[in-house]
Structures are given as structure tokens and as C-alpha cells.
Amino acid sequence: MSARVRLIHAAHPDQLVDLVFGELSQSHRQWPDHRAFVLVPEHLKADMERRYLTDHQSQGLMMAEVLSFNRLAARLAAEAGGDSLPLISKAGKAVLAQKALLDSSLPFKRFQRLAGRARYAQELVNILGDFNRYQIAARDLRSFGDQSQGTKARQATLEKLSDFALLKEALDQAMDQLGLLDPDQTLARLADLLETRPLHHRLAFLEKSQIWVLGFGNDRDFTSQERRLLKVLSGCLARLTLVLAADEAGQGPLLPGLSRGRQSLESLKDLFPQAKIISLPPREKPSQPQVRCIRTPDRREEARFAAGEIRRLLLEGKVRRREIGIALCERAAIAPYLETALEDYGVHAYMDTGRPLRNSSLVRMLTAFLALCQYDFSFDDLLDYYKSGLSGQSQEAIDRFENAGLALGWRRASDLRHLTASPQAMAEALKGHLDPESPPGLLVMELLEDVRRLLELGADMRQRRTGRQKCQGLLDFLLGASQEEEGDLQRDQGFSPHSMAGRVQSRRDQLLEAKRDDNARLLVSSWNALIDFLQETSDLLADARLSQAHFSDMLAAGLEGLALASIPAGIDRVRVGSPAQMASWPCKVLFILGMTDSAFPPESKQEGYLLDQERVFLSQETGKPFPNRKRDQPASQAWLVQSLLERPESILYLSTPSLGPDSSRIYDEQVAKSQVPETILTHY
After folding, report:
1. By C-alpha distance, which of 601, 594, 592 is closest to 651?
2. Angle 500-513/467-479 helices, nearest 10 degrees?
3. Is 29 exposed, middle or buried (0-12, 13-18, 19+ CB in 10 A)?
4. pLDDT tens digits for 167-218?
5. How many other C-beta atoms can be found within 10 angstroms of the C-beta atom of residue 484?
6. If DSSP codes are grouped into helix, strand and coil, which group holds residue 513?
7. What 3-state class would DSSP assign to 637?
8. What is the CA angle 348-352-353, rounded to 5?
9. Which run of H or E residues covers position 165?
């Protein structure tokens, strides 16, 4: 059955959102027993779902759902009883990639030099994901002729692509042997399922179903996997509607921010030559928001001004918290200041800043502990462990221990093994610095006893030969008990207060008592993610014999790929996120903070391991599209800037943390355009 395919475009994205959700509500009322889906990018799923439920008189989400492509694939696969095998996580793929890089039997020409740098494993996995999404197979990466011919640059590119092919095959083989599915192939598996004839009887409902595709085609074009799936869906559905923000010649001046949308529209016309093209008439031009431009001396004052201004708006009763958004151009730099300022002013906010797990105190502690498992670790490695905040030692004891170590020349693990051999040896070593019987001396003696325990744990880890045994050793260290079977692992039952799990629980309770619910939730989420990761890694490495150094490298590679998905503690909260996240957030008031020349519009400053010219070469030689930072970034930036500046209904605050000339060009243009004097703060 061939679906009626519609391509609908308009210049303003909110006009398209209203159209789609209006049609969805009408369809649900007319055919309540027919299923309908709206497909949106993953990062917009929750926001679009909330918008549908609150603004468009929806009848609920029983038969009408807002999903991403991957969630639709999981839903349909579950309906058909497929994909019974588990998916490997992104961190798990990084572990397997690092394992392959350390495998001397694989004839890599360039990748083996990356084996000692764990962060590269995650980047290589991301590039392999792009190969899958754009349907570039290992044979495509090897189809470029004799690698000994041409310039050195060409030879380097060919060798690099050949290594990618080898790594891709190694990962695919490893996942097949482990019975795991690649999440980057989810859409391809769904397309294969829907192409099967006859179609599975439990998917017969698709013949009466409709799908709207919304939110794609402006910051990037559809991937090859997505295009293939859309083509297959068009043969299964009652109707397929693709909407995107784009303008056409003859409807006024073309907007730079919609250039990518225009390209996507043309590519969809080629994909669906029989589709019905609908151009929505321009709606009445909405009133422009009031623009305020703020200069502050630094990020701290910038954050304090924003928090104070939000407090004023809330007290005046003009807006609710959920109608205020904050876009952070420099998330890592300003987020700590903003979090403190909002707390000081009593403003409840949800900071969707996407904190990588590697920045959490829990992972810093584990990374330091892995360093201590090496035979010849340094005194600095030991201090990193104690300064993680989860060692169970007081800050005074740590400071006195550090002073004693520096004064007495403790440098390597051998020094610590010698002085912790016995209580007498510890006391004798301290006599040259302080009295072992004095209160400060007793603190250091107690900490040295903990060092002796860590040395024993490190020796035990080195004696464990297989990946499974080493993962079990780490789980025992974290959970504070020796478990013979994975099924005995309990995350939150009967932990000793002296175990690592007990310390995490204690820290969680302290955060809750201090009303820092978000931080407590982050700590608990980090703990659960870490335990899940270690259990998955145990299955991935299984009985492979590993040195402690190689095991630590593999674990570090996986930890680079771990990130925490956060959930707001309440609905009525100020929303804080990246510019890309806030560009689609409906709000009355929007603050854009950190508008320096280097931070806004945001750009990918590093090409990554696969350079732009190599991406161009790959696309030209294979005849397949492939993402390219240099080519794609201008259109993506123009779309992001346009979306942010048009987003708020009432007030737009543009802020730069500089009194000098390094403000963003977008900020300077808006100052000139708005003809409103800047607010210049020297102290707020």
C-alpha cells in the first residue's frame, strides 16, 4: 500500500508545530482506534510531548505518540517480537574498541599509536557510528585502489580509512560473538523488518496509521538510514507527512537561517517525486520581543544579574518559572556560577547541562583508584584518590598527610610500601616530621593504615587475570562485599558505612539535607550508571586475560562515553540548557549568557580524528553523503542564531561577560539593531 506523502514547509517552525499537533488531535478525534506517531529528534522528544499535551487539547498518548526514530524502531520491533538480543551501550562499544586497539594481532597501520590514549576510542566509535548512519560499509572504506600510490597525504588518508574498516569489522565480529546488537544499526534493522513480505501480522495496524516527521532538516539533512526508513514507511502507512522550516523564492527575501531547510526540501522532493508539496502562507508577523543587551565584567556578575532579574520578574507576577529559559553559550565556564546565583536568589531551575560522568566525584575516585592498582603509582595519584571527596577521610587528615609526604619525600609506591609495612615503621617514619602520638600524628597514622589497605587492594587487582575477575574486584571494592555471583549484587541494601557504597549514601543524605536535590540525584544516577557499566564490561571482557594497565585503559575508554540523562524535579522550573536545547523551547523570556566571540555562535573548533578534507574525499569516492564540519557548520549556525533570536514572546536578554571588544558579533549586531542603550554593569 503506497502512502500519501506530503511535504509541508513554512518559514516559521512554530507554525509547523501547531499544524502537526492540530492535525494529530483532529485525527485522534476522527479515528480514535487508529494509531498515529509524530517523529522528532531525540533531544526534543520530552519537550514536544509536553507541548502537545498542554497546548493542543490532546486526548492523551494512548494511540497518538511523540517518538524519536530510535524509539519508533524499538516500539515496532517489540510489536513484531524482534530484537530480542540486548543492545550494547555506547560506553561498551568504546571498551571493545579499546580492546581492539590493544590487540597486536590486528594489522593497524595508524591506530595502534592511539592505544595508550583512551579518549580516542570514544571518538573512533562516534565516527564508526557516522559510517553506519550514512550506510558506508567496510568494503567502501577499502575500495580506493593501491594505497602506495599518490601523495603522502593521500596515503595517510587511505591508511586511516583502511584502519577504520578493520576496526569496524573487529567490533561487528565481537558483538556477533557476544550476542549484542549495535544501536547505530537500529534504523537499518527496522527498515529490513518493514521490507519483509508479507509484513508481520502484528504490524498490520500501520496500514491505517499516520506519521508526521517534525524538527528535522534544518541543522542537518536526513541521514542515509533515515531516508531509507522514510522511503520504506511510505509504502506501509496510510499517510506520511514531512514538515520542515524552509522558504522559497518569490515569498520575500530568503532567510540565511533556512538555507539548510531549502536544501533538505529539495532532497526530499527527489526522494518522493510524487509527493504533494504544500507551502503554508506566512502567518501574521508576531510582535518582536523587547531586547535588552547587558555587559558585565565577568561570568560571576553575569550569572548574578540573570538570577536577580529572574527573581524580579517572578515577584512582579509577569511570568511563571517554566516560561523563562536560559541558554548557556559557555556551559562549563558559567554553569557553576549560575547554579550558585539561582540558589542564592531562591530561583528553582532545571539545569539540563548534560554533565559527562567523567566529571563526577565518583568517577574521579574510581579513575584514581585504578591508578593505585598499578605497581609503581605516584604520590600524586594517591592524593587524587583522597581529594575525590569519597575516600572517607577528613580534610584535615588529608592535608596533614600531604604535608608529611612532601616534607619526608614520599614520591612513589615503593616509599609507601616500606613505611606501611608495620605500625612501628609508620611511627618511625613520622618522627622526623611530627609526634606519632599527638592528635595530628594520630590522624596521619590512621590515614597511613588506609594506604596499607589500598596497597593490598591494588595487589589483589593485579593478581586477577581476566577481565571478568577484575570487574568483579572493582564491584567488590565499590559495594563493600565479596560477591561470588552477579545475581547477588544489591545496590542499596545493608551497605557498611565504611564501604564506598556507604560513603555515597552518606553523601547523598547530606545533599538532600542541604536541599541540593539535583546534586543528590546526579550522585545516585552516577552510581547506578557506574555499576551498570562495570557489569556490562564484565560480560564484554569475560575470560580474556588482561594486564592491569590494559584493563585500566579499556575502562577509561568506556568512562569517556558515559553521560547522564537528567530529569527535572518539577514542571514549574526555569529551564537552563545549551543554545541548541533552548532554540526550540517555547518561552516568554529568554536569557542568552556568555555571548563572547569565541563562544557564540557555537562552533566545533576541532575537526576530530577524521579531517574535513578526508570526509570530502570519502564522500566523493563512495558517492554517498557524509557529514562535514566545514561545509555544514555555517548553515547550522545561521539556523541556531535565527531560532534563538525569534524564540521568546516578550523579552530577550543578550549578555556578554566582557567589558572589552571580545563580545560576539551577533551581540554587537543586535546592539546596533535594537537601538537600545546597553546596560553596563561593573558590580551587581
Report:
1. 592
2. 50
3. exposed
4. 999 999 999 999 999 999 999 999 999 998 888 889 999 999 999 999 998 8
5. 7
6. helix
7. helix
8. 120
9. helix 152-178
3-state SS of the chain: helix, strand, coil percent to 5? 55, 10, 35
Q: Which of 196-200, 307-311, 373-377, 431-435 comes out lowest in average pLDDT?
A: 431-435
pLDDT band at 482 (very low <50, low <70, confident <90, very high): very low
Q: Are 553 and 467 in contact (CB under 8 A)?
A: no
| Phi, psi of 630, rounded to the nearest 5 degrees | -65, -40
Nearest C-alpha neighbor of 387 from the set 402, 408, 375: 402
List pLDDT tens digits, range 54-76.
765 555 556 788 999 999 999 89
DSSP label at 13? H
Residue 567 has pLDDT above 80, yes or no: no
H helix runs in 438-567, sequence order: 439-463, 467-479, 500-513, 517-541, 548-560
How many angstroms separate the CA atoms of 365 and 360, rounded? 9
Instruction: Please name the residues in contact with 273: beta carbons below 8 A apart, sequence gap of 6 or more.
Output: none
Tally Cβ neighbours within 10 Å of residue 675.
Answer: 7
User: Residue 542: CB partners within 8 Å, gap ≥ 6?
Assistant: 466, 467, 468
CA–CA dist 397, 184 (Å, integer): 48
291 SS3 class? strand
- Strand locations in 572-648 (E): 574-577, 589-593
Residue given cell 599518490 in the structure block: 150
Sheet holding 679-680, edge to edge: 349-351, 574-577, 324-328, 589-593, 651-656, 290-295, 679-680
Cα R_g (the chain), whole angstroms: 28
The answer, yes or no, to whether residue 250 has pLDDT greater than 60, is no
Closest to 585 (Cα-Cα) out of 570, 573, 600: 573
Asked whether the beta carbons of 507 and 527 are under 8 A apart, the reply is no
Q: Write the secondary structure of 39-71 as one string of H (helix), E (strand) and C (coil).
A: ECCHHHHHHHHHHHHHHCCCCCCCCEEEECHHH
Grid cell digits, residue 396? 584535615
CA distance 629 to 603: 9
C-alpha cell at 1: 500500500
Q: In what order do the strands lie in the sheet with 276-279?
A: 64-67, 36-39, 210-213, 239-245, 4-10, 276-279
The enclosing H or E element of 357 equals none
Position 1 scores a pLDDT of 41
pLDDT band of residue 485 (cuts 50, 70, 90) is very low
The mean per-residue pLDDT over the stretch 216-231 comes to 91
Cell of 3: 502512502
pLDDT of residue 288: 81
Distance CA 654, CA 589 (A): 11
Burial of 471 (0-12, 13-18, 19+ CB in 10 A): buried
The pTM (predicted TM-score) of the whole model is: 0.84
Average pLDDT of span 485-498? 49
Q: Which long-range contacts (CB under 8 A, 24 or more apart) does 51-60 make?
A: 51/17, 51/21, 51/586, 52/21, 52/24, 55/21, 56/18, 56/21, 56/22, 56/24, 56/25, 57/25, 58/21, 58/24, 58/25, 58/28, 59/25, 59/28, 59/29, 59/32
Element (H, E) at 568: none
CA distance 580 to 508: 31
Number of H helices, E strands in the chain: 26, 13
User: Given pLDDT bands bounded at 50, 70 and 90, which one contains residue 625?
Assistant: confident
Residues 255-279 have a mean pLDDT of 89
Sorted by where each starts, the structural domains of the chain and their CATH numbers stand as: 4-83+186-279 (3.40.50.300), 90-180 (no CATH), 290-354+569-680 (3.40.50.300), 359-560 (1.10.486)
